[in-house]
Design goal:
Helix 2 packs across helix 11 and helix 3 packs parallel to helix 4. It contains 11 helices and 6 strands. It is globular. The chain has 2 domains: 61 residues, no CATH class; 167 residues, Rossmann fold (3-Layer(aba) Sandwich), CATH 3.40.50. It is of the alpha/beta class.
């Protein structure tokens, strides 16, 4: 269970919640347990480091929706490397067999940690996944927010219609390393012109151009950007202040471990 009892939440600052999660403060949605970000009250399940294991968890959430007769749709996404994880395929196979309302998005980042997609996935594309499991799905431009929204909206509507899971694949590119430890490795493995080509297709820049072409004035866009920068600055200040007096103690490790906590001295039932 993930509680949402943070001071930042009470102030209505979801950006601060995210930063508090990174800092591991006790008033973060995860209460300082992990730097991964999630907030169950916002229906965002906190992921784990082994992303290839999350599709199975997400399929379980979708199964809960189906058993309770709820109209919810579960969604998760994995990188191109995670399609080599057994748990990902088990989840897709189970979801297909049970016709679960779940969306799996595969991000083709072009590189998984230090392995280029052409090496670990010679086919170079992931449309065969939906064919293998006999479910609906399609590809979309992972750097175009409108295309991503439209693809996901159509998939969610289809899931709510009871036709089962949808597997989408997004063509994109990871501009940095998987993490700070392999930033240099990614830059050394892939040609500089590839970074230049994908850098010109930055999702924020593309959406800004779309807004300009739709008649939004440059001055209005600048005002929006200034507002967002100010919001992030306020959130960063709130998170840093929280770090000064809201770091969790060791007892937090024993809290919220079970859905129904055992009574003191009683038997432990998982």
């Amino acid at each position: 269970m993930i509680r949402n009892a943070g001071a930042c939440c009470e102030m209505g600052m979801p950006v601060a919640d995210t930063l508090c999660s990174y800092l591991g403060t006790s008033d973060a949605p995860s209460q300082g347990r992990d730097a991964h970000v999630g907030d169950f009250s916002r229906r965002v399940l906190q992921p784990i480091s082994n992303i290839g294991s999350m599709p199975a968890v997400t399929a379980g959430v979708a199964l809960g929706f189906k058993l309770r007769g709820e109209p919810g749709v579960a969604l998760t996404w994995v990188g191109d490397g995670s399609v080599k994880h057994g748990g990902t395929h088990e989840a897709m196979g189970f979801a297909a067999a049970q016709r679960l309302p779940v969306i799996f998005i595969v991000q083709n980042n072009q590189i998984a940690l230090g392995t280029e997609v052409r090496v670990h996935h010679p086919a170079g594309q992931f449309g065969t996944l939906r064919q293998a499991y006999g479910v609906s799905g399609w590809s979309f431009d992972g750097n175009n927010v409108l295309d991503a929204y439209a693809a996901t909206k159509i998939a969610a509507d289809r899931c709510r219609g009871g036709t089962g899971p949808v597997i989408l694949d997004a063509e994109t590119f990871r501009m940095g390393g998987h993490a700070t430890h392999d930033e240099g490795e990614a830059r050394s493995m892939i040609a500089g012109e590839v970074f230049e080509r994908w850098g010109a297709r930055d999702p924020i820049g593309l959406y800004e151009e779309h807004l300009k072409n739709s008649g939004v004035a440059a001055e209005e866009l600048e005002l929006i950007e200034d507002t967002i920068i100010a919001e992030v600055d306020r959130a960063a200040e709130a998170a840093l202040q929280s770090k000064q007096g809201n770091m969790p103690g060791r007892a937090i490790a024993l809290q919220d471990v079970y859905a129904n906590p055992p009574s003191p001295g009683g038997p432990v039932v998982a």
